[in-house]
Amino acid sequence: MSDLFEASGLTQTGPRPLADRMRPTRLGDVVGQDHLLGPDGTLSRMLKTRSLGSLIFWGPPGTGKTTIARLLANETDLAFEQISAIFSGVAELKKVFEAARARRMGGRATLLFVDEIHRFNRAQQDSFLPVMEDGTITLVGATTENPSFELNAALLSRSHVMTFQSLSQDAVDQLLARAEKLEEKALPLDAEARQVLIRMADGDGRSALTLAEDIWRAADEGEIFDAQRLQDIVQRRAPIYDKSADGHYNLISALHKSVRGSDPDAALYWFCRMLDGGEDPMFLARRLIRMAVEDIGLADPNALVQANASRDAYQMLGSPEGELALAQTVIYLATAPKSNGAYVAYKAAMRDAKSSGSLLPPKHILNAPTKLMKEEGYGSGYQYDHDAPDGFSGQDYFPEQMTRRTYYDPPQRGFERELRKRLEYWSKLRSER
């Protein structure tokens, strides 16, 4: 089926939304995806051969995935069939495949566009494989989720992933100019309000045109809205941020890497973006604790103290007051000296622990509470460090069957400069005894 109206036997009547009326009829009219459709774009190069392989369109909403799929079918003379994974099941898929096979027998191939393809379960995704392999369909799947996580490896291996980008502010402005030409009237906004509207669209072309329609409906003849009036009319559009999907992982990655990169301003921006998107502040508190031990560690031992204190402060104060404590920790961590020395040492020691088997500690550091254990040599030769010169005996504490290892190699940064001096001093004493 091509849409839900046809599926239910209804026809579309009445006024069509502006976004639908402005849907491009040529690939050259699509804005914002020049990396795909420009002279050297990936899709442009494919179209030069007049044939397509199966594709996965990955990107945010309102960036042209459905439109481009339809236009690709026109460009390659393929029959266009569209379904949505939200409303379709196995029975629907079988009907679509049968129609495509019949069409193929008549000499015409089918481009099957599957919206929200990640909504299909693994078995449903596998059902596409035979009809893709025998040429019954050319699959174009659209998803807002990361295909690496949401789609079967077998399906991905037979498809080319095309990444769609959010529309730039210039591209959104270009869409609005086209809408004004189509409607034969300017948007009733002053220059500042127009920029606010563009930012509200957040890179979503469909949203931009929907907002424009709302403004035209609300304006009296001759009325011009300023930025405040615009926001009062359309309210504020929620940021595109799904706490359970890619937006969540992308933003926490940006925050973590900004802290690691010692950029407090960028770190604060991503921290606030997550809060503004509705992220649980306690999740952020836990991530800040992780950053303190992974990326700062002993270069500034107080980093972990600060991170834990800000978590406690947030639990005491709640929102929004407690969020300031977390923001303070973001700045502290970003400006602290960085070291992953403890993290690297832990990972290296864990690898040895997993691979070395059940090696026993050397007997001289084992307690001997019984006579038998003493006779077995437990505790024999142990040197009490506090009785040794410099409070350091230099004994070997590794298993007897294992050569000595060096896991912790502190860099010359922050407090770890002092730790390095101590380790070098103890190493010198050990070599002399």
UniProtKB/TrEMBL annotation:
One of its GO terms (biological process) is DNA synthesis involved in DNA repair. Belongs to the AAA ATPase family. RarA/MGS1/WRNIP1 subfamily. Keywords: ATP-binding, Nucleotide-binding. DNA-dependent ATPase that plays important roles in cellular responses to stalled DNA replication processes. InterPro entries: AAA+_ATPase, AAA_assoc_2, AAA_ATPase_RarA/MGS1/WRNIP1, ATPase_AAA_core, DNA_pol3_clamp-load_cplx_C, MgsA_C, P-loop_NTPase. This is Replication-associated recombination protein A. It holds the Pfam family AAA. The lineage of its organism: Bacteria, Pseudomonadati, Pseudomonadota, Alphaproteobacteria, Hyphomicrobiales. The keyword Nucleotide-binding applies. One of its GO terms (molecular function) is single-stranded DNA helicase activity. Coiled coil: none annotated. Residues 1-22 are annotated as: Disordered. Residues 51-167 form the AAA+ ATPase domain.
